[in-house]
Please model this.
Amino acid sequence: MRPEPTSIGSFEQAGATALAMLSLSKTERRIAHRYRLAASEAERKGNRTRYQYYTLEYRKHWRRALFYLDHARLWFSKPA
Model:
């Protein structure tokens, strides 16, 4: 849960935090896609160990991307 802003500066800080979270989400998503491509390549080559490793990394980064996206939404939402 985000803190309630008490002044204009707090609103600006909330916006900056939301943009930072959104940027982190995009970065994690890009990394996840790279691991997904590497997993596909490893599977194509028949390297099961590498496939499992890249798949785990893909899932980890994808979960992080969703985490940051959810937090960005919290910071972008209007105060109650």
User: Anything to note?
Assistant: The chain has two helices and no strands. The two ends are 12 Å apart (CA to CA). The helical segments are 8-45, 48-76.
